[in-house]
Amino acid sequence: MKRITLIPLAFLFLLCTVVNAADTALVISHKDKNLQWGACPDFIPKGCELAVLQGDPAKKNTDVFFKVPADFEIPHHMHTSVERIVLVSGTLDVMYDNQEKVTINTGEYAYGPAQLPHSAYCHKGEACVLYIGFVEPLDAIPVASAATK
């Protein structure tokens, strides 16, 4: 199992982050022109982007926007942290191992357990933007595909 940490991206984001402190209040849109979007881990196809909203991805408690184009497959992977997700735009199917597929619509909340492998598909029509809150340091670990119900 190959583990990919986002330490190199963390350094970039620390230099470019929109907000620099837990003491600073923040209200921001995924359409804000000041967001600094960066690439996702290499195992995710080109087109995927991340923007750090607050925190240091190498440390606990980081919030990000995760964006993929419409008609986009996110490969099978897992995280060491739980994911607290709100779909900001688009429609997203998420396939967690040994569970039935779930469809998340714009404005809906989803909880992704730590270390539970999953893949996802952003429907045609509109890009998917997810707000994701990570409790542990941000990582993405590619895993071999498994069957879903």
Describe, in plain words, how this protein is organized in 3D.
The protein has a single domain (4-19, 36-135), classed as Jelly Rolls (Sandwich). It is globular, with a radius of gyration of 15 Å. It has one helix spanning 7-16; strands at residues 4-5, 38-39, 49-54, 62-68, 72-78, 83-89, 91-96, 102-105, 109-112, 118-122, 128-134, 139-142. The protein has one helix and twelve strands. The chain starts with a strand and ends in a 7-residue tail after the last strand. Helices cover 7% and strands 41% of the residues. It has a six-stranded antiparallel β-sheet, with no helix packed on it. Keywords: Signal. This is Cupin type-2 domain-containing protein. Residues 67-131 form the Cupin type-2 domain. Residues 1-21 form the signal peptide.
Features of this protein?
six-stranded antiparallel sheet; mainly beta; Jelly Rolls; 149 residues
